[in-house]
Specification:
single chain; 308 residues; alpha+beta; Alpha-D-Glucose-1,6-Bisphosphate, Chain A, domain 4; seven-stranded antiparallel beta sheet; 7 helices; 14 strands; 25% helix
């Protein structure tokens, strides 16, 4: 049986013209790291995501309010054996009006299960089309990959000193079969954190904000957000918890993988290998099982069920 191209569809309460305009606003729903025009037939544009993914596209078909087709001229993946996967494939947007609404059919022609990147690309495209592009159409604001900045411009305030980094560390590494965009959302938003750590969570994905995680009526952990580098790094400073936690730092780093994402976690600054250190290491392993399940299935196992 022939492998099928990846496709996904959505229906929106908007005119074909509005949807067409949103599709061509590629920086508004896919990535702010786009160089070149994306508005007219024969336009060429470049996409890049850190040193992980680069691609060059040419718009080869554009029928106003009906169809847009991109041809992938060049492509590079850091994490696949064939670094050029996607090259000479086509990205197709087709529009049809139905009862006052618009049906958008998205197809990545040539992206089939034979590709090493298939599952990752399947999940990433689903996120950007079903969530980000849909939000751009309906609300005027999508959730594209933010503009990359230089190392000197990282979104960072009140950086943790070297002294605070000293001491013992709890470390975990795991594969999560979901794209980095989805895992980053689970690590930064209130709904995401509540879905895998504790339902009683108050959080904003903002530098300097204080995250509050309540586990019992009389026990709340508070974390200060120190760093947010979209889709690659999150760092907290613990300011309230059991005494051994206070002053420790928690770092989550994400790396794209052909099957999803690799999460590297480090809980640093412990003074010694205590019983709390040991139990905390075990608890983190259980909570990361919950995070993995949330990202892969939509349902985590947060407190108080995490150890069942």
């Amino acid at each position: 049986m022939k492998n099928q191209d990846f496709t996904t569809s959505l229906i929106v309460d908007a005119s074909p013209h509005k949807v067409f305009e949103a599709i061509n606003n590629v920086r508004g729903w896919w990535s702010e790291n786009i160089d070149g025009s994306t508005n007219s037939l024969h336009d060429e544009f470049h996409y890049h995501y850190q040193d992980v993914h680069r691609a060059q596209f040419r718009i080869i078909e554009m029928i106003p309010d009906k169809k847009v087709v991109w041809h992938v001229l060049e492509n590079y993946f850091k994490f696949t054996e064939d670094e050029t996967e996607w090259k000479d494939t086509k990205v197709i947007f087709e529009l049809a009006e139905d009862g006052g609404k618009t049906v958008l059919k998205f197809t990545h022609q040539g992206l089939t299960s034979e590709y090493e990147c298939f599952q990752l690309c399947h999940d990433a495209w689903t996120h950007y089309i079903q969530s980000s592009l849909k939000d751009l159409i309906m609300t005027g604001k999508g959730s594209p990959t933010p503009k990359e900045t230089g190392k000197d411009d990282l979104l960072q305030s009140d950086p943790i000193s070297e002294n605070q980094q000293e001491g013992k560390s709890i470390c975990h590494r795991l594969l999560i079969k979901s794209p980095v965009e989805k895992v980053f959302e689970a690590l930064t938003t209130q709904d995401g954190l509540a879905g895998w750590w504790t339902p009683d969570t108050i959080a904003k994905p903002e530098i300097g904000s204080i995250l509050k995680f309540t586990f019992e009526p009389d026990y709340t952990k508070e974390m200060k957000v120190i760093e947010l580098t979209p889709y690659s790094k999150v760092q907290w400073l613990c300011i309230k918890a059991y005494e051994e936690w206070i002053g420790t730092s928690l770092t989550f780093e994400l790396e794209p993988h052909s099957k999803g994402s690799i999460l590297f976690f480090r809980h640093s600054g412990w003074k010694d290998y205590t019983s709390e250190f040991a139990s905390c290491s075990y608890a983190w392993a259980l909570f990361f099982r919950s995070l993995k399940r949330l990202c892969e299935t939509g349902t985590g196992i947060p407190y108080p069920l995490f150890d069942q």
